[in-house]
Amino acid sequence: MSEDLKNEIIDFMKKGRFCTLATVGRKSGRPQAATIGYENAEFDMFFATGGKTAKFRNMKSNPWVAIAIYYSDPGALGAEGLQYFGTAEVVPEKDFDKVPERTLNTYNRISKQDPARNEVIVRVKPTKILYWNPPKGFGHIDVVKF
Questions:
Q1: Residue 139 burial class via C-beta count within 10 angstroms: exposed 0-12, middle 13-18, buried 19 and up
Q2: Where is average pLDDT lowest: 24-33, 36-45, 73-82?
Q3: Cα–Cα dist 9/12, whole Å
Q4: How far apart are CA 80 and CA 12, in angstroms?
Q5: pLDDT band (50, 70, 90) for residue 37
Q6: Whole-structure pTM over 0.85, yes or no?
Q7: Beta bridge partners of 85
Q8: Contact in structure between 50 and 118 (CB atoms under 8 Å)
Q9: By C-alpha distance, which of 146, 111, 123, 104 is closest to 9?
Q10: Alpha carbons 145 and 19: distance in angstroms, whole number
């Protein structure tokens, strides 16, 4: 991957604050999707979630996840998107210094307001990214494997 493409994808990821996270149901085996707030550090994605949520229980059972991020200015050529495939892991407290600030602040705020949620911070490490950027040509997709 070129340095230009790397920077383009990371900058695109930083534009957004929300994405759709898909996990696999631990009992049903069916997909489950949730809109989450996220922050990225390079290609790693971070988010806070309750330790009792379905998405968290699903990720504990099967760490493989898919993420979709979409951004659009008016008009079809202003749209960008990516599909992100990776594995999720809980960030231990000893590694919180590596967590982006907004994610850590969300974790701290929710943990204080609702300790029963058993809030955790999750890091998703990519295995593959499909980046769609129509200004490069309609239907153009950059594929990045890690």
A1: exposed
A2: 73-82
A3: 5
A4: 8
A5: very high
A6: yes
A7: 66, 128
A8: yes
A9: 146
A10: 20
Cβ neighbour number for residue 88 with a 10 Å cutoff? 23
Q: What is the pLDDT confidence band of residue 78, given thresholds at 50, 70 and 90?
A: low
Two tokens, residue 87: 């594995």
- Both tokens assigned to 3: 């340095």
Integer Rg of the chain from CA: 16
CA 26 to each of CA 3, 6, 110: distance values in angstroms, whole numbers, following the listed order: 38, 34, 25
Q: What is 3-145's CATH number?
A: 2.30.110.10
Q: Identify which has the larger pLDDT, 77 or 14.
A: 14
> CB of 110 within 8 A of CB of 119?
yes
Query: 121: phi > 0 → left, psi -120 to 50 → alpha, else beta; which?
Result: beta
